[in-house]
Amino acid sequence: MLEKINPEYRYASLVKIRPDWIRKHHFSALLIDVDNTLLPRNSSVIPEAHIKWMKEMELNKISMALTSNNGGKRLDEIARQLKNSGLSVPILTWAGKPFPRAYSGAIRLLRNSGWDPPDKDKDTDSILTIGDQLFTDVLGAHLYGLPAIWIRPLSDNDFIGTKLLRLLEKMVAGHLQQTGILPAEDNESGDCI
Prior knowledge:
With about 190 residues, this protein is an alpha/beta fold. Helices cover about 40% and strands about 10% of the residues. Helix 5 crosses helix 6.
């Protein structure tokens, strides 16, 4: 069970994940969580550094889709901000992570937005997920067979259910660290310690 919640990679933030690192690991598409990964949970404004990072990904021909277990006006505002910034990044709302349908839906958005995987028979081999929660983002990615980057949450403002999961997540991360299988944060090689 531990392997299902242990991420392959760990970074402090999105901006530390560089396009050359993504290409070196043979990824061509990213599925990025919205809340506390792309922007703080109670905000509808994407930080300018993350807009710049996304533009850099697009310039490097790395496709992206956003996933959120939420929806409504806030996600509409986020979509408008992306569009006004010149980004064409689709968003899957009410995704239902960690369930596999969330990932199949996000991959469908990637394909519909023009993503062209290097190997069409093994397209999921070139998709990397990024999120701030072990029990939704990392677990969900692994249930679908995708690798995951676990990043630090942008804020501690969480939904009550998420706050409870964060307590469990802290204990599990401590155990993963003690057993020596949790990847080191910002380890450019991507190797686990």
